[in-house]
């Protein structure tokens, strides 16, 4: 796992996963360990383990994969 997904306030890690496209406008995170904690149209902070983290909104979730947009 190389991605941490934090709640909107950035105070708690709610899920982890993998992504290879942190530099893109739209970020896809796969192999999410807790996908039921993520909701479409909700805001999160995501980034590599330990940060830096960036605010994003979830645009789609399918199984254990989710899309986020800056």
How many distinct helices?
A: 0
Biggest sheet, spatial arrangement of strands: 2-1-4-5-6-3
Which spans have pLDDT < 50 for at least 5 consecutive residues?
none
What number is the mean pLDDT?
94
Return Rg in Å.
10 Å
- Strand and helix order: EEEEEE
What about the largest sheet?
6 strands, antiparallel
Q: Based on helices, strands and strand pairing, what is the structural class?
A: mainly beta
Q: How many domain units?
A: 1
How is the secondary structure organized here?
Elements lengths: L2 E4 L6 E5 L8 E4 L13 E6 L5 E9 L2 E5 L1
Antiparallel strand pairs: 1-2, 1-4, 3-6, 4-5, 5-6
Please characterize this protein's 3D structure.
This protein is an all-beta fold and 70 residues long. It has one domain (3-69). Helix content is 0%, strand content 47%. The protein contains no helices and six strands. The protein has strands at residues 3-6, 13-17, 26-29, 43-48, 54-62, 65-69. The protein has a six-stranded antiparallel sheet with strand order 2-1-4-5-6-3, with no helix packed on it. A hairpin with a 6-residue loop joins β1 (3-6) and β2 (13-17). It is globular and about 25 Å long. The protein starts with a strand and ends with a strand.
